[in-house]
Amino acid sequence: MTLGLPDEPRWVEAHGIAADAAGWRRPLGNGFALGHDAARLIVISDEADTSAVVALVQASPAYAVLVPSEALAAAVETAGRAVQRALLHTLPPDALPDLEGAMPLPDDASLAHVPAPLAEELAYARARGVVWTTYVDDEPVAFAYAPWRSPRWFDVSVDVLPAARQLGLGAITASAMIRHERAAGREPVWGADEANVASLRLAKRLGFVRVDEIWIGAPA
After folding, report:
1. Which tens digit of pLDDT belongs to each residue from 123-165?
2. For residue 2, is it left (φ>0), alpha (ψ between -120 and 50) or beta?
3. Is residue 1 pLDDT above 80, yes or no?
4. Smallest Cα–Cα separation from 177: which of 132, 143, 211, 114?
5. What does the alpha-carbon distance between residue 143 and residue 125 come to, in Å, rounded to a whole number?
6. Could you give the CA distance from residue 181 to residue 146 in angstroms, rounded to a whole number?
């Protein structure tokens, strides 16, 4: 799929969708939307026609929508969505702490104790790359994976089960995943809603620095 967007942190999901055979592209005036039905995600480019954005968002209530500007965020709000600003961060080359204790999630690991939405996300991620995990009492409780990749970047996703939080496991698991992806020549992008204090705190602990922002329309 022809993309026409620079390989920058704000477009890592767009590049990931464009590289996936299941992704789709739809013109929106002078801009366009990229979507992925299995991931329930739509990314909208600059220059998209606002009325077309409103129509697409209203027709896709189960999809999260990423937009690069406040003007397009207003269009997503007009379509009836709650919109949050997400702060994007990247990691300087020498900033990652030396943390150990994570491992790749084994193929036969049981996820029966994991909430169904997260288990579904992990199954999707496992089909596309390594999911890193940390165990407590013989159960995987922290997970880190890259849901989207571009030639230069990868998107960081970290989940820790509620009973295992405040133990530092998110940092341990994320560090292992970042080292693994860096070995393949990609650098991490950490995105977090500006109200997500825990995620922003973890990003800071790992050495991430803010570089950009986007807006996210939550599923209806």
Report:
1. 888 888 899 999 999 999 999 999 999 999 999 999 999 999 9
2. beta
3. no
4. 132
5. 11
6. 8
Backbone angles phi, psi at 177, to 5 degrees: -65, -40
Look up residue 144 and give its amino acid.
A
Indicate the pTM of the whole model. Answer: 0.92
In DSSP notation, 130-164 reads PPEEEEETTEEEEEEE-S-B-SSEEE-EEEE-GGG
φ/ψ of 156, rounded to 5, equals -90, 130
pLDDT, one tens digit per residue, over 88-129 is 999 999 888 888 999 999 999 999 999 999 999 998 888 888
Q: Judge contact between 53 and 75, C-beta under 8 A.
A: yes
